[in-house]
Amino acid sequence: MPVVYRVLKPLNGLRRRVRASEVAFVLVAVAIGAGAGLLSIVQGGIARTIQHILFGVPGGDRLSATPSLPLVTLLALPLGGLLLGGFSLLVKARKRRLVDAVEANALHGGRMSVPDSLVISGQTVISNGFGASVGLEAAYAQLGGALSSVAGTLLNLRRADLRTLVGAGAGAAIGAAFGAPLAGAFYAFEIVIGAYTPSAIAPVAAAALTASLVTQTFDVEPYQIMIPSDPVTTTHHYLLYAALGAVCAAIGIVLMQTVTWVEQGVRRSKLPDWARPAVGGLLLIPLAMLTPQVLSSGHGALHADLVVGASIGFIALVFVAKSCASVISLGFGFRGGLFFASLFLGTLVGHLYADTLAWMANRALVDDRDAALVGMAALAVAIVGGPMTMAMLVLESTQNFSLTGAVIAASLVASTLVRELFGYSFSTWRFHLRGETIKSARDVGWVKALTAGKMMRRQATATPAAMSIAEFRRRFPLGSTSRVVLTDDTGGYAGIALTARAYAEGADTDAPIGSVAVHPEVALTPDMDLTGVMRLFDTTGADELAVVGHDGAVLGLLSDAYVRRRYAEELEKAQADLFGER
Question: Which helix (H) or strand (E) holds 556?
Fold first, then answer.
């Protein structure tokens, strides 16, 4: 025991200091940022090494920038699918759904599982390393968030602080991967934390900056696209780019829906789960033979198409092929996301948009390279969400801040239209398909945790509904209680008897008390969350409702007034955490 005490004593002191000092919390975020940056470097290095070995890509080059690939090397696609299928088959034996950083912050107060995070990272690295059309961003954010969650749990952080630290870790990982600390910070706020919080600005920014510095220290070249710019100076440019944002919103919705339809169709097929990625890999081979730009995340292809230049016909071909490859990869079970694929596809959409306008007007209305960068941000916002995240990512990656106004305008148009017409980003849309109702990482975990079973007042005695009103009066004198829960002959719920009704003038004292019961068919279940409880009270107009177990047994009673008071208390607490008030 003394040895354990000596080991834990410094940690206990650190816990108290971090909980009491914002400066100490920022220093913890700096350490988390350094760790997240290192993890991003390692994961990216592993995936690129696999690609170099399997596809013979020269060192320093990107798979998607390869001019062509022999058929024999493309067999790595179904091989990777088989490997992923076998790995996922082992994981499913655990019978537990994997939770990512967004879901952890929205529903679980920032608590993440290290084994689950390693599984998600491993699946993503396999998928990307073997050439599937997915990016590594999910793996980066997952391990960055998991590192933060473990550190925050060891330090016994408050719920709000733990959520902030998880956002800082995930955002730092993204910032390190792209060499874009501002984008990483906004990623934390918009996508992982779900709000811009004054108390989170310093730790999130510190983590993102540290992660970027770590990548520079290890001489990892940030992903940048250096192209000349034609500054936007007239009003019509902004209007045209706003229209491009609307086009990207429509394309983003179609892509998200198409992935869902393909995924649902594959699930309805007779293909076993373990074989689906392999079949998807086979379907990717013809697309990769058409152009290797459809493979992996598309970093190299984006750079080649923007900087080197390509014909309009080739760009249209790549857009269709890359869209199909992304849909197939995700629909057939490869792990990853549409983060960088949406950036790449956005450049193609912007280029096509500019050339289409030039053809219609018989002159160039917008610069095609500028339109490509604006489309890059707008389509990414439509699919991934986070307008400021994607705007900063494009501007930092290109060092082209002259387009700031146009990029933000198009991003906001795309974001607004997608929220209005579709309501979800790609990640939260997939949560919706699993039955979750969350639309962002905003903390709703406390709402889910506050259930009817936890708030109810337990019912001490069961009163038979067959009891006469006269007997009820004798057992419950006027003024002793306002209402009593009734049960039927089998012990099941039979309604609520209002004492005032039993004592009403002219009441038949020989009649059963159940004859004057209210809400005999309406009851709460113990696992019903706060939102469902309040909705049922609003629908019925009841002052109190019984809580009934799944076996029909009466467990307790819950009043509308108490529920509203608890909601107000928890909401006030959440607001205090949001603004850093202790």
Answer: strand 554-559
